[in-house]
Specification:
Blueprint (H helix, E strand, L loop, with lengths): L1 E10 L7 H14 L2 E4 L4 E5 L2 H17 L4 E10 L7 H11 L2
Helix pairs in contact: 1-2
Length: 100
């Protein structure tokens, strides 16, 4: 399972609130059909296909431009583990178990 974390930052907006831009990015992910989890600082993606992850990231990035941002900075982290099938929930659960 491949997991990725993206943070999309619209630049050149007229207001400090970014929720309209992020909601446009999330709508693009919904339309793409990729599994995702929204957090307060970014969005986690999950797929068995790296191409699908890149496609979803591209759609989300472009959606922010379509919403009116003049510049967009997108940070991407990818964890591509191929020895075992691990989901985002599996990773969190593994740490939680070790906390006691």
């Amino acid at each position: 399972m491949i997991t990725a974390e993206i943070t999309i930052i619209p630049i050149g907006t007229s207001k400090t609130s970014l929720s309209k831009y992020i909601s446009a990015a999330i709508t693009a992910l919904d339309n793409d059909g990729i599994k995702y989890e929204l957090t307060g600082m970014g969005t986690l993606l999950e797929s068995n296909d790296l191409g699908k992850i890149f496609s979803a990231i591209t759609a989300a990035h472009e959606a922010v431009f379509k919403e009116g941002a003049e510049r967009v900075a997108t940070s991407i982290k990818i964890d591509d583990r191929r020895d075992e099938e691990r989901t985002i929930k599996d990773k969190v659960s593994s740490v939680t178990q070790k906390l006691g």
